[in-house]
Protein backbone atom coordinates (compact mmCIF):
# COMPACT_ATOMS: atom_id res chain seq x y z
CA UNK A 1 0.00 0.00 0.00
CA UNK A 2 1.09 3.55 -0.62
CA UNK A 3 1.48 6.06 2.13
CA UNK A 4 -1.73 7.91 3.01
CA UNK A 5 -0.35 11.22 1.76
CA UNK A 6 1.01 9.80 -1.52
CA UNK A 7 -0.66 9.03 -4.86
CA UNK A 8 2.18 6.67 -5.90
CA UNK A 9 1.50 2.97 -5.34
CA UNK A 10 4.57 1.66 -7.16
CA UNK A 11 7.98 2.74 -8.41
CA UNK A 12 9.82 1.89 -11.62
CA UNK A 13 13.52 1.19 -11.03
CA UNK A 14 15.66 2.45 -13.92
CA UNK A 15 18.40 -0.04 -13.08
CA UNK A 16 22.13 0.40 -13.50
CA UNK A 17 22.13 1.47 -17.16
CA UNK A 18 19.68 2.06 -20.01
CA UNK A 19 22.08 0.79 -22.71
CA UNK A 20 20.39 -2.32 -24.12
CA UNK A 21 23.61 -3.92 -25.40
CA UNK A 22 24.98 -4.01 -21.84
CA UNK A 23 21.93 -5.58 -20.16
CA UNK A 24 22.71 -9.28 -20.76
CA UNK A 25 26.49 -9.05 -20.12
CA UNK A 26 25.82 -7.13 -16.88
CA UNK A 27 23.18 -9.69 -15.87
CA UNK A 28 25.67 -12.55 -16.09
CA UNK A 29 28.44 -10.47 -14.49
CA UNK A 30 26.38 -9.59 -11.42
CA UNK A 31 24.82 -13.06 -11.29
CA UNK A 32 28.38 -14.36 -11.01
CA UNK A 33 29.15 -11.80 -8.29
CA UNK A 34 26.04 -12.84 -6.38
CA UNK A 35 26.86 -16.55 -6.62
CA UNK A 36 30.39 -15.89 -5.32
CA UNK A 37 28.92 -13.77 -2.50
CA UNK A 38 26.41 -16.45 -1.46
CA UNK A 39 28.85 -19.36 -1.72
CA UNK A 40 31.72 -17.46 -0.08
CA UNK A 41 29.76 -16.19 2.90
CA UNK A 42 27.83 -19.42 3.48
CA UNK A 43 31.08 -21.41 3.22
CA UNK A 44 32.74 -19.16 5.81
CA UNK A 45 29.69 -19.46 8.09
CA UNK A 46 29.78 -23.27 7.79
CA UNK A 47 33.56 -23.39 8.29
CA UNK A 48 33.38 -21.36 11.52
CA UNK A 49 30.42 -23.42 12.73
CA UNK A 50 32.08 -26.80 12.07
CA UNK A 51 35.59 -26.08 13.42
CA UNK A 52 35.94 -25.77 17.18
CA UNK A 53 39.32 -24.05 16.80
CA UNK A 54 37.45 -21.11 15.26
CA UNK A 55 35.05 -20.78 18.20
CA UNK A 56 36.71 -17.61 19.48
CA UNK A 57 35.41 -14.02 19.79
CA UNK A 58 37.13 -12.94 16.56
CA UNK A 59 35.43 -15.65 14.51
CA UNK A 60 32.14 -15.22 16.35
CA UNK A 61 32.02 -11.67 14.99
CA UNK A 62 33.29 -12.81 11.58
CA UNK A 63 30.44 -15.38 11.52
CA UNK A 64 27.95 -12.54 11.99
CA UNK A 65 29.73 -10.35 9.41
CA UNK A 66 29.31 -13.10 6.80
CA UNK A 67 25.68 -13.55 7.81
CA UNK A 68 25.00 -9.81 7.41
CA UNK A 69 26.82 -9.68 4.06
CA UNK A 70 24.79 -12.62 2.76
CA UNK A 71 21.50 -11.08 3.93
CA UNK A 72 21.95 -7.56 2.64
CA UNK A 73 23.35 -8.72 -0.69
CA UNK A 74 20.24 -10.92 -1.01
CA UNK A 75 18.07 -7.90 -0.16
CA UNK A 76 19.45 -5.96 -3.15
CA UNK A 77 20.94 -8.18 -5.87
CA UNK A 78 17.95 -10.32 -7.03
CA UNK A 79 15.87 -7.20 -7.71
CA UNK A 80 18.77 -5.58 -9.54
CA UNK A 81 19.24 -8.69 -11.70
CA UNK A 82 15.57 -8.49 -12.67
CA UNK A 83 16.13 -4.99 -14.09
CA UNK A 84 18.55 -6.42 -16.67
CA UNK A 85 16.04 -8.90 -18.15
CA UNK A 86 12.69 -7.08 -17.85
CA UNK A 87 11.36 -4.09 -19.74
CA UNK A 88 9.93 -2.53 -16.56
CA UNK A 89 11.33 -3.34 -13.15
CA UNK A 90 8.35 -2.39 -10.99
CA UNK A 91 8.44 -2.42 -7.19
CA UNK A 92 5.39 -1.68 -5.06
CA UNK A 93 5.54 1.16 -2.54
CA UNK A 94 5.32 -1.28 0.40
CA UNK A 95 8.00 -3.55 -1.14
CA UNK A 96 10.22 -0.50 -1.67
CA UNK A 97 9.91 0.55 1.98
CA UNK A 98 10.58 -3.05 3.07
CA UNK A 99 13.72 -3.26 0.94
CA UNK A 100 14.87 0.11 2.28
CA UNK A 101 14.30 -1.03 5.88
CA UNK A 102 16.31 -4.25 5.55
CA UNK A 103 19.03 -2.54 3.54
CA UNK A 104 19.45 0.11 6.27
CA UNK A 105 19.29 -2.52 9.01
CA UNK A 106 22.05 -4.70 7.56
CA UNK A 107 24.29 -1.85 6.41
CA UNK A 108 24.15 -0.02 9.77
CA UNK A 109 24.64 -3.31 11.63
CA UNK A 110 27.75 -4.04 9.56
CA UNK A 111 29.10 -0.57 10.28
CA UNK A 112 28.91 -1.10 14.05
CA UNK A 113 30.03 -4.73 13.81
CA UNK A 114 33.26 -3.63 12.10
CA UNK A 115 33.91 -1.26 15.02
CA UNK A 116 33.30 -4.10 17.50
CA UNK A 117 35.76 -6.25 15.54
CA UNK A 118 38.35 -3.45 15.80
CA UNK A 119 37.84 -3.35 19.59
CA UNK A 120 38.27 -7.14 19.67
CA UNK A 121 41.63 -6.81 17.85
CA UNK A 122 42.67 -4.07 20.30
CA UNK A 123 42.03 -6.32 23.31
CA UNK A 124 43.72 -9.30 21.62
CA UNK A 125 46.93 -7.37 20.83
CA UNK A 126 47.16 -4.83 23.66
CA UNK A 127 45.75 -6.96 26.51
CA UNK A 128 46.41 -10.60 25.50
CA UNK A 129 46.60 -11.93 29.07
CA UNK A 130 43.02 -10.87 29.86
CA UNK A 131 41.62 -11.35 26.36
CA UNK A 132 39.38 -14.33 27.09
CA UNK A 133 38.10 -12.68 30.27
CA UNK A 134 37.47 -9.29 28.65
CA UNK A 135 35.87 -10.83 25.55
CA UNK A 136 33.84 -13.47 27.40
CA UNK A 137 30.81 -15.06 25.68
CA UNK A 138 28.50 -12.79 27.69
CA UNK A 139 30.40 -9.65 26.60
CA UNK A 140 30.42 -10.80 22.96
CA UNK A 141 26.67 -11.38 23.02
CA UNK A 142 26.10 -7.98 24.66
CA UNK A 143 28.23 -6.24 22.00
CA UNK A 144 26.41 -8.11 19.23
CA UNK A 145 23.05 -7.13 20.71
CA UNK A 146 24.18 -3.50 20.68
CA UNK A 147 25.15 -3.85 17.00
CA UNK A 148 21.70 -5.13 16.01
CA UNK A 149 19.87 -2.60 18.21
CA UNK A 150 21.72 0.24 16.45
CA UNK A 151 20.89 -1.34 13.10
CA UNK A 152 17.23 -1.72 13.97
CA UNK A 153 16.81 1.80 15.39
CA UNK A 154 18.60 3.39 12.43
CA UNK A 155 16.54 1.41 9.91
CA UNK A 156 13.28 2.39 11.63
CA UNK A 157 14.16 6.11 11.63
CA UNK A 158 15.35 6.13 8.00
CA UNK A 159 12.34 4.15 6.76
CA UNK A 160 9.89 6.23 8.80
CA UNK A 161 11.42 9.43 7.44
CA UNK A 162 11.13 8.28 3.81
CA UNK A 163 7.64 6.79 4.30
CA UNK A 164 6.41 10.20 5.50
CA UNK A 165 7.26 11.82 2.15
CA UNK A 166 4.63 12.67 -0.46
CA UNK A 167 5.17 11.09 -3.88
CA UNK A 168 3.02 12.52 -6.66
CA UNK A 169 2.99 11.70 -10.39
CA UNK A 170 6.69 10.90 -10.92
CA UNK A 171 7.48 7.31 -9.92
CA UNK A 172 10.63 6.68 -12.01
CA UNK A 173 13.32 5.86 -9.44
CA UNK A 174 16.78 6.54 -10.86
CA UNK A 175 18.51 3.61 -9.17
CA UNK A 176 18.72 -0.17 -9.11
CA UNK A 177 17.27 -0.31 -5.57
CA UNK A 178 15.16 1.71 -3.15
CA UNK A 179 17.84 3.92 -1.66
CA UNK A 180 17.38 7.03 0.45
CA UNK A 181 18.76 9.77 -1.82
CA UNK A 182 16.91 8.74 -5.02
CA UNK A 183 13.64 8.58 -3.05
CA UNK A 184 14.27 12.07 -1.67
CA UNK A 185 14.72 13.27 -5.26
CA UNK A 186 11.24 11.97 -6.17
CA UNK A 187 9.39 13.68 -3.33
CA UNK A 188 7.08 16.52 -4.35
CA UNK A 189 7.22 18.28 -0.96
CA UNK A 190 10.11 19.82 0.97
CA UNK A 191 12.79 17.31 1.99
CA UNK A 192 14.94 19.65 4.08
CA UNK A 193 14.08 17.94 7.39
CA UNK A 194 14.43 14.49 5.85
CA UNK A 195 17.85 15.35 4.40
CA UNK A 196 18.91 16.68 7.80
CA UNK A 197 17.77 13.41 9.45
CA UNK A 198 19.73 11.41 6.86
CA UNK A 199 22.88 13.48 7.35
CA UNK A 200 22.73 13.27 11.16
CA UNK A 201 22.01 9.53 11.24
CA UNK A 202 24.66 8.70 8.65
CA UNK A 203 27.18 10.86 10.54
CA UNK A 204 26.38 8.81 13.66
CA UNK A 205 26.29 5.44 11.89
CA UNK A 206 29.58 6.10 10.10
CA UNK A 207 31.19 8.58 12.51
CA UNK A 208 30.88 6.57 15.75
CA UNK A 209 32.28 3.32 14.28
CA UNK A 210 35.11 5.19 12.49
CA UNK A 211 36.12 6.95 15.73
CA UNK A 212 36.06 3.61 17.59
CA UNK A 213 38.11 1.96 14.84
CA UNK A 214 40.58 4.86 14.70
CA UNK A 215 41.15 4.85 18.48
CA UNK A 216 41.47 1.03 18.53
CA UNK A 217 44.07 0.99 15.77
CA UNK A 218 45.96 3.96 17.21
CA UNK A 219 46.35 1.99 20.46
CA UNK A 220 47.21 -1.16 18.50
CA UNK A 221 49.89 0.68 16.52
CA UNK A 222 51.35 2.10 19.71
CA UNK A 223 51.46 -1.39 21.19
CA UNK A 224 53.04 -2.90 18.06
CA UNK A 225 55.80 -0.26 18.03
CA UNK A 226 56.78 -1.43 21.52
CA UNK A 227 57.24 -5.02 20.29
CA UNK A 228 60.98 -5.56 19.79
CA UNK A 229 60.95 -8.72 17.66
CA UNK A 230 60.30 -8.43 13.92
CA UNK A 231 58.33 -11.68 14.00
CA UNK A 232 56.05 -10.36 16.75
CA UNK A 233 55.37 -7.14 14.84
CA UNK A 234 54.67 -9.06 11.65
CA UNK A 235 52.22 -11.38 13.42
CA UNK A 236 50.40 -8.45 15.02
CA UNK A 237 50.10 -6.61 11.69
CA UNK A 238 48.87 -9.75 9.88
CA UNK A 239 46.17 -10.20 12.55
CA UNK A 240 44.70 -6.79 11.65
CA UNK A 241 45.39 -6.56 7.91
CA UNK A 242 42.20 -8.29 6.72
CA UNK A 243 40.01 -6.13 8.96
CA UNK A 244 41.75 -2.91 7.85
CA UNK A 245 41.12 -3.76 4.17
CA UNK A 246 37.44 -4.54 4.78
CA UNK A 247 36.96 -1.35 6.84
CA UNK A 248 38.60 0.79 4.14
CA UNK A 249 36.42 -0.66 1.37
CA UNK A 250 33.16 -0.43 3.31
CA UNK A 251 33.49 2.99 4.95
CA UNK A 252 35.25 4.56 1.96
CA UNK A 253 32.40 3.82 -0.44
CA UNK A 254 29.69 4.54 2.16
CA UNK A 255 31.11 7.93 3.14
CA UNK A 256 31.54 8.89 -0.52
CA UNK A 257 27.86 8.15 -1.12
CA UNK A 258 26.13 9.65 1.92
CA UNK A 259 28.35 12.35 3.38
CA UNK A 260 28.11 14.57 0.30
CA UNK A 261 25.03 16.61 -0.68
CA UNK A 262 23.13 15.23 -3.72
CA UNK A 263 24.02 18.41 -5.66
CA UNK A 264 27.73 17.54 -5.37
CA UNK A 265 27.31 13.81 -6.05
CA UNK A 266 25.10 13.09 -9.10
CA UNK A 267 22.86 10.04 -8.77
CA UNK A 268 24.67 8.20 -11.59
CA UNK A 269 27.91 8.41 -9.60
CA UNK A 270 25.92 7.42 -6.51
CA UNK A 271 24.85 4.26 -8.31
CA UNK A 272 28.48 3.25 -8.76
CA UNK A 273 29.24 3.92 -5.09
CA UNK A 274 26.13 2.00 -4.01
CA UNK A 275 27.09 -0.83 -6.33
CA UNK A 276 30.47 -1.07 -4.66
CA UNK A 277 29.34 -1.45 -1.06
CA UNK A 278 26.14 -3.44 -1.76
CA UNK A 279 27.50 -5.91 -4.34
CA UNK A 280 31.31 -5.86 -4.41
CA UNK A 281 32.18 -5.53 -0.69
CA UNK A 282 29.98 -8.48 0.47
CA UNK A 283 31.63 -10.58 -2.25
CA UNK A 284 35.18 -9.57 -1.30
CA UNK A 285 34.84 -9.91 2.50
CA UNK A 286 34.92 -13.75 2.69
CA UNK A 287 37.71 -13.84 0.08
CA UNK A 288 39.81 -11.33 2.04
CA UNK A 289 39.34 -13.17 5.34
CA UNK A 290 39.98 -16.55 3.70
CA UNK A 291 43.04 -15.70 1.63
CA UNK A 292 44.74 -13.52 4.25
CA UNK A 293 43.91 -15.56 7.35
CA UNK A 294 46.09 -18.51 8.33
CA UNK A 295 43.56 -20.02 10.78
CA UNK A 296 40.81 -20.03 8.15
CA UNK A 297 43.08 -21.62 5.52
CA UNK A 298 44.23 -24.32 7.97
CA UNK A 299 40.65 -25.06 9.07
CA UNK A 300 39.50 -25.21 5.44
CA UNK A 301 42.28 -27.66 4.57
CA UNK A 302 41.45 -29.88 7.57
CA UNK A 303 37.73 -29.82 6.75
CA UNK A 304 38.41 -30.81 3.13
CA UNK A 305 40.78 -33.58 4.27
CA UNK A 306 38.13 -34.96 6.63
CA UNK A 307 35.52 -34.92 3.87
CA UNK A 308 37.86 -36.66 1.41
CA UNK A 309 38.99 -39.31 3.92
CA UNK A 310 35.38 -40.07 4.93
From TrEMBL:
Places the protein is found: Cell membrane
Gene3D superfamilies: Rhodopsin 7-helix transmembrane proteins
Recorded GO CC terms: plasma membrane
Record field: transmembrane: 26-47, 59-77, 97-117, 129-151, 196-224, 236-259, 274-291
SUPFAM superfamilies: Family A G protein-coupled receptor-like
Keyword Membrane (UniProt): yes
Residue intervals of the G-protein coupled receptors family 1 profile domain: 40-289
Keyword terms: Cell membrane, G-protein coupled receptor, Membrane, Olfaction, Receptor, Sensory transduction, Transducer, Transmembrane, Transmembrane helix
GO molecular function: G protein-coupled receptor activity; olfactory receptor activity
Pfam families cross-referenced by the UniProt entry: 7tm_4
Major location (coarse): membrane
Job description of the protein: Putative odorant or sperm cell receptor.
Listed name of the protein: Olfactory receptor
Organism lineage string: Eukaryota, Metazoa, Chordata, Craniata, Vertebrata
Gene name in the database record: LOC112864949
Amino acid sequence: MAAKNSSVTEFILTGLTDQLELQIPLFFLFLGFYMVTVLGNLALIALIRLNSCLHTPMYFFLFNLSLIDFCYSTTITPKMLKSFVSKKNIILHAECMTQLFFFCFFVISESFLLSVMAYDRYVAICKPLVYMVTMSPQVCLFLLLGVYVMGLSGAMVHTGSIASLTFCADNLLNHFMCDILPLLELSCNSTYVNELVVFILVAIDIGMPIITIFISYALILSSILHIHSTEGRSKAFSTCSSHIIVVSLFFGSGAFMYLKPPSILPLDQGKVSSLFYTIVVPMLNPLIYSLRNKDVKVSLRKTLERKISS
